[in-house]
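User: Structure with KOT, tokens only please.
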Amino acid sequence: MRNDFETFFQLTKEKLENECQTTVDDCTASDVYYAIASIVKNDLIGDWSKTENETNNKSAKKVCYLSMEFLVGRLIENNLINRGVLNIAKETIQELGFEPEEVFMQEPDAALGNGGLGRLAACFLDSLASLRYPACGYGIRYRYGLFQQRIIQGEQIELPDYWLEQRYPWEERKFEEAVSVHFGGTVRTSTHEDGKLQFDYEHTDEVLAVPYDIPITGFDNEFVNTLRLYSAETPSPLGDPVTCEDVAYYHELGHEHDITQISGYLYPDDSSYEGKRLRLKQQYFLVSASLQNMLRSFKENSQRTLNEFHESFAIQINDTHPSLAIPELMRLLMDQERLSWDEAWKITTQTFAYTNHTTLQEALETWPKEMLESLLPRIYMIIDEINERFCQSLWFDYPELREKIPELAIIADDQVKMAHLALVGSFSVNGVARLHTNILKEQEMKTFYTLFPDRFNNKTNGITHRRWLLQINPSLSSLITDAIGPKWIHEPQALIQLLRYANDAPFLQQMDEVKRENKRLLSEYIYQETGMTVDENSIFDVHVKRLHEYKRQLLNVFHILHLYNELKENPQLDVTPRTFIFGAKAAPNYYLAKEIIKFINVVASIINNDPDVRDKLKVIFLENYNVSVAERIIPATDLSEQISTAGKEASGTGNMKMMMNGAVTIGTLDGANIEIRDLVGDENIFIFGLRAEEVQAYHNNGGYMARDLYNTDPRIKRILDQMHNGTFGREERAFKDLYYNLLYHNDPYFVLKDFDAYIETHELVERAYRNRGEWTQMNVANIAYSGKFSSDRTIQEYASQIWKLKPLL
Ligand code: KOT
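Assistant:
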């Protein structure tokens, strides 16, 4: 495409006329969106096939990223930037009488993920393409993404997210590459003519996995990878029913419903596990389709023999959710390709690498043996055999570990432990931040670590600086480029050069103005969404992420209530005005998380309606927090709340996004916060609270006495009493369950225990904020050191240390 306005405008005009059946005078924002998306798609299609052909021709190794979630958000602006036409597209849009934002918003926010894990997968795809690594993401094309959240009378209501209601312009249906996936039935064993056992599957239910491909463009490089999402369909069209009374017809309809349900919706649980049969179906559907696709492509395109499969593909499994890929590859290699167990096992264990994303017990996946066996009989046989051989090898090769066999086994107590399967079947196991990996090695997976020390490694998470800085914060990006040149866009570590400006008064002034402007824009959005006006000069204190007890939104609310109580007692108190901004979805059946959402909203309405504190405190809960909402909030954040109970947040990635936009973190020594502090130094971050070892020590002794704090700290007593006695307007029940959880279940996430340190640290924040020059210096330091947290760095580490992958030049 010629990158000039006239050509682009002309193309848009043609698209409007030929594809949208409208004109430049009559078109809607939606028409303009489709026209521009179509231009971009046409423009990249040649590079897309070129990338694939070159990968094949050069027999280049490819990484396949298997994930139940890809939280991609909107792609239009990302693609326009990557293809170098953002500015002319914006001019075109304005020429047509629209605002760019209005047009970009026409794209559904693809929410095929819950939070951190799914967004990480999307950032990784962006970095892989931008660094020219051959890669394919494999996932599910859920008809319904993560629910849309409405807040009604303070409570979360979930609405279905039918994101495919309108045509999705980025995807291409590839029916010719559909494959069959089989469920249920029985396995008949006989002897094959090659003398080995043969396994035939009988009476299975067949499901067609139809791929929809989405192009993943690289930045400024003509490289285009694929995100392949599978949709579940019935294998052959239903015959015309003779009459509607036809029993078989109803039967068939039910059957069709069951099948299409497999790609029906995304399970809305983040860091928790729900052992539903349909979820297990989804997992197997994904891995079977993906592996059949890889094998087919290997046989069609590669000169290599199957023993060299791992030279063509590295497969990364995103948490244990796709770990059935391990027995599935064994099945395909043995039953279909007729390899022996040992040959197949060698290939498999040279191919798979597994990323762990959490140590929370409630997230550990274990499937009832009976469920797995009935749904996937052949897969179960293979897992059983992997387990037998693994336990045998422990018995003979590690006599000192004999008594640990029951705890290491893949199948125990009639449950299949997916983490054990992933550990045994992979050549690499990684955690997502230094502390997290150490906890895996020293605690959660200690015995496995002694067994396979070389398998364990750390890959600290990252985020794509192209979306999370360049795209969402154009004014800051220009300021950075004006100061240090554009090199940081290709090499984010070059952001470190900003340190030269740490004492440059005019630069600091401009930084401050950029933040102010971003806060103004967010204030407008807040007004539009909630009707609330906020003080643009107040501290924007932001806590956005999934709602979970361990993330401790409740601790934040306790701080707010503390300030409120202090101000009520002493209205003259000199506090810097604050705007507390929350955004969080709770899993629909996570009761306490939903109570916390109500609590935040009740506290918000009391504070926001109290004239005594009107000029000092505001509490905003933005509903339906998603990628697009994050993109508005992050550039305007002053203070980034990263206050999880130490040891619980594997990494966090919101912490990185906010840091990269200049926010200062208030946080615990948890996840990647530790690595942020190591870089910026104690003078540019606010660290407080228990350390992971301290939390662990309390846990080992059965917790701490939360009651003692209630009795000794009047600030805590005051707040807890208010929770209980109907101050918050729900006299009949108040927030008794939250209250009991803190006091009588001994505060499992140490909210009260960290309260004092948190309050004190907020006082330091407030003092620091008053000295605007110094505060802006902290902003600069945070941006300067954030280059390490680009997912480009993370991907380079995965590529060189795990996947042995080279860029395709
Ligand atoms: C969800 C279900 C089961 C197992 C793990 C999860 C999970 C973990 N979902 N999201 N995570 C988060 O992953 C992010 C990316 O690695 C981390 O930054 C974050 O700390 C995890 O909580």
